[in-house]
Amino acid sequence: MSIVINILLFIVVISVLTFVHELGHFVAAKLVKAKVFEFSIGFGPKILSKKYKGTLYSIRILPLGGYVKILGDGDPTKEKEDRKEKGNLKNKSKLAQMFVMLAGVTMNILLAIILYTIYLSSNGWKMEIGNTYEDFKPVGAQITRNRVSDIPYELAEKGGALDSGMYEKGYILSINGEDIDDYASLTSMLGKYKSEEIEMYACNMEEECNFFQVLVSDEGKIGVFTGYNYEVFIDYSGNKALAGISHSVNIVKLSGKALSSIISSARETGDYSELSNTVSGPIGIYFIIDYFKTLGIITFLGILADLSLSLAIINLLPIPALDGGRFLILLIESIIRKDLNQKIESIIINLSFIFLIVLIILVMIKDIANIEQLKSLFK
């Protein structure tokens, strides 16, 4: 039953993202008075369809996508005949054509903004981002911290802490009578007493506390593994009206920061496995849905916003089969003041589409090969 629910949710998520994206192209085409043959959700044989004012609205059997068929945006075999029609998209200005191409991406971004606003408003206008990004500079927000405990620690196999008889696990409260507030203050304090003995006040997990005489190494270490005792948030409480927009920008910035860190680490170690795991397809989305469906509707809407924003970014890539690539072609045509040969353009778009299909298949094969690792990410 759980698998069936996951599949249904997967179909709903893909359908919503596709519907919103294609609705953007559809509305934009209508606004520039281009002729729309069909607005379809899904591919393959029709399940339901209705023609209204010259446009066929349909739901097809394979719900993993959709399309809007616009006159002048597709098969060039009837180019000369179709070009005579007033509703041909090619007869519209380059600006109007660019508007239609980017409308789908715009709608996905708008959906993300709306969903982020709902998500943030239901979570006190803030989102936890983890201590790794405490130095992050957000747009339209501020970084806030919430202390949750004293500094947790666990003894290493050797070091001054072990030799002093400190508890195996517990919390560090002070050094030489000075309170230790967070990880940064701990490392700073140990740095002052390199190769010296310090008096450390610590408590175990049962709240039994004591003083310990601990020798600090010449590297400023005492042989403990420590954790963070603060929650770090992006706080939009001072910018509620534009929180959804600001958060969309910040999510892109955070993703870029994380990706840059992974790439740098991969270059240093020569291990690119973690980098490959940042790219996932339908199987990865399935496991995301399986995990986040248990965390409530608000969290699920936040994930839907992430996916919508990701879809927009992917579609902006300068690949001819994607909206970003089509926009780039139109931009080139507007600069050279001449349309590219339609047959050549069609070949380029079709080849890039084949490339995308092959890439998706390869990503799916990678996900299947690493399916146990994918599962472990969402436990």
Q: What would your notes on this structure say?
A:
Helix content is 49%, strand content 21%. 25% of the residues are buried. The chain contains 12 helices and 11 strands. It has 2 domains: 2-123 and 280-377, no CATH class; 149-228, Roll (Pdz3 Domain). With 379 residues, it is α+β, with helices and mostly antiparallel strands. A hairpin with a 4-residue loop joins strand 8 and strand 9 (209-215). Helix 1 crosses helix 3 (94-121).
List keywords for this structure.
379 residues; alpha+beta; Pdz3 Domain; 6-stranded antiparallel β-sheet; 3-stranded antiparallel β-sheet; 11 strands; elongated
- How would you sum up the global shape? elongated
> In angstroms, what separates the terminal alpha carbons?
19 Å
Rg calculated over all Cα atoms:
28 Å
- How many domains make up the 3D coordinates? 2
Into which percent range does the helicity of residues fall?
40-55%
Unreliable stretches (pLDDT < 50, length at least 5) are none
Mean pLDDT: 88
The biggest sheet, with number of strands, parallel, antiparallel or mixed sense and barrel status, is: 6 strands, antiparallel
Q: Helical region count?
A: 12
Class by alpha and beta content: alpha+beta
Instruction: Count every beta strand, where a strand is a DSSP E run of 2 or more residues.
Output: 11
Query: Approximately how much beta-strand content do the residues carry?
Result: 15-25%
